[in-house]
Design brief:
It is built from eight helices and eleven strands. α6 packs across α7. With 242 residues, it is an alpha/beta fold. A seven-stranded mixed β-sheet has the order 5-2-1-6-7-11-10, sandwiched between helices. The protein folds into two domains: 160 residues, Rossmann fold, CATH 3.40.50; 74 residues. It starts with a strand and ends with a helix. The radius of gyration is 20 Å and the shape is elongated. 40% of the residues lie in helices and 16% in strands.
Length: 242
Amino acid sequence: MSKKIATLITNLFEDVEYTEPVQAFKEAGHEVITIDKQSGNQVTGKKGTTVKIDKSIDEVHPADFDALLIPGGFSPDLLREDDRFGEFAKAFIQDGKPVFAICHGPQVLIDTDLLKGVDITGYKSIRNDLKNAGANFKDEDFVEGNLIWFEYFERNRSFFSTMLGSKGAPAFRSHFLEFVIQELEGEVDVTEGKNQGLSKDLILKFFGAAIVEIVEAWFTNGLSEQTQVVAEQVGLLLDRNL
């Protein structure tokens, strides 16, 4: 069933922390509504991504949405200057609706008085702010009830384990496979050496699919290996076989 997801965002958001989750949500059939101080405006991310604002904060009500996404970057700190955004986010927590807060995203929640005693993570520069709000800071990504926290988009096991349990899985797999194949393109040589005469397309698809399976298993099964270890192991696999 399609869900309606509110997204609190303004200028200087972290581009990938908006674009990637939103793409996954949309391809899973969900509707994403961007919210800032004024509807119709265009906001720009730190790396130049532009996003049109669908609704102003005065036009929306938490009851009309199923979940909340708060991308990181400088955007959350700018939004928290206006109490309306904190109150909007507060309602999602109180109603038990999913809240995806990425990197600096928890800053919007600092002034809600709802973080006392809550286990939370976030970018290291806001650690003390979260602690001062009464939260228990944890240096790891995790899901606690309806709250989905992760420190970096790149270290996103909790987010993707949640997404992969839904219709978001095919979107994640197809886009990640695309990315992996593009990265491997220049590493495969079928004109000489041990791969001479083989189909480059077949090799790319085979190793691409294998890497996607490894990463998906890591996300969903909560493997104990750290990100760096997984990256090194995959790197060795490629060095030995391409």
